């Protein structure tokens, strides 16, 4: 009610202010009009005086003529002249800027009804304009105030949440420290993950762990690796799509399995649950390649976990650069037997002279002089093209790897051991240190050659030496040393300068190939490359074992 009264008082005062303003403006207009009327009247008066003077002169002339006839009425003429001089301009109303209708004092003070309505309309329009501006200004101020209040509230809420989190963390840590809190493993479930996924599932503990044996669901392995499944309910056969001919047959409730027609014994019996076959994990860790099974036992703080996924060959590039994953083909280490004629290797080994070394090679003797002297002479070339990745379970990281190579350089264990012995003499005795190992074993999928079928690094027996500049390596004393001494450790220059037509490859002095000391010595003594040696001694049949 108070606001309404104040608003009415404000409106009345506002009306009086604008009314007084209008009166002042009209008074100024009236004064200006009076001055203009006065000036006009003065000009008219002067014109009339001039006209009167002219007329008087004319009348004088006429008087002279009429005086003779009639004497004029001077008194009446004088009265008329006085009345004319006394005539004043019409008076203008000081408030409303127009002549008075009459000289009534009430008429001068009070405007007419129409004039008042006009003034009221002008006042209302002005009042509405002022009110709109006031409301607009008030709305802008209110909006700015609300925004500032919301911003302050969010800032205070964020500060409060951070403080609460810190207090909670400190309190929880203190409670764990004081009370010795430990998350006890419930021994009821196990974390189970199939494939490289971020989420895991929980499986009943006794489903995957029985009598100390860790199991994996065969159905999940089939889905993960894309195996083809055949057989009966009692005999289930898995066929690997990657190797083509690799197969494994499991027998229900039995520890027997058949891998590529070879019988093997499992750690424990298989079993079936809910229509799914469960197989001991140790089978895949022992006999399969391309499948990774990571089992973490249960502890007091954490439950047991099992992760099963396919091995990625380019894991570094896949994780760091985002390259598409290249998976290692799934295969089984046990292959079908290949029957070869027996070779009296002891007799052949006696055909070469003893070598002289500058280091103690006793720890490396088995690697330098392999028991199977023809076991490492397989080749990959235009005549014997590779069709798939050669899988080995004895791959070992080489020594003296080039710092620029981020992923480990791998070789088969026997070649890596012989290489280690040779590096000791080259670097420690001969002091030839301006090179490192640059490349070794490659899979078919990550071969650096334009045609992987011609890449001999698939055999895991070749290394490439890193030397800067690489093109000058063939002219260095280091290369001369390898050319004259590598045979003692079972290595050869794989692509010699004078054998390019036989190997089908240009001179590559940086490529060393392990073949064993017997073969390397015979090739050196007879000046043969590997292709010539195999052809001369009719050793094509040895190439049949390359799938092993």
Features:
single chain, 548 residues, alpha+beta, Copper Amine Oxidase, Chain A, domain 1, Muramoyl-pentapeptide Carboxypeptidase, domain 2, 3 domains, five-stranded antiparallel beta sheet, four-stranded mixed beta sheet, 15 helices, 21 strands, 42% helix, elongated, disordered C terminus
The biggest beta sheet is recorded as: 5 strands, antiparallel
| Uncertain runs | 337-343, 543-548
* Spatial shape: elongated
First and last CA, distance: 104 Å
Question: How would you briefly describe this protein structure?
Answer:
This protein is 42% helix and 16% strand.
Blueprint (SSEs and pairs):
Blueprint (H helix, E strand, L loop, with lengths): L1 H65 L7 H13 L18 H5 L3 H67 L9 E6 L6 E4 H4 E2 L2 E5 H8 L2 E4 L3 E5 L7 E5 L4 E4 L2 E4 L5 E3 L2 E5 H7 E2 L1 E6 L8 E6 L4 H6 L10 E2 L12 H5 L15 H4 L26 E3 L12 E3 H17 L6 E4 L22 E5 L10 H9 L5 E5 L4 H4 L4 E7 L2 H10 L3 H7 L12
Protein architecture, described:
- Helix content is 42%, strand content 16%.
- It is of the alpha+beta class and 548 residues long.
- The chain has three domains: 14-111, no CATH class; 189-331, Copper Amine Oxidase, Chain A, domain 1 (2-Layer Sandwich); 345-547, 2-Layer Sandwich (Muramoyl-pentapeptide Carboxypeptidase, domain 2).
- Helix 1 (2-66) runs antiparallel to helix 4.
- The longest helix is centred in the N-terminal third of the chain and has 67 residues, at 113-179.
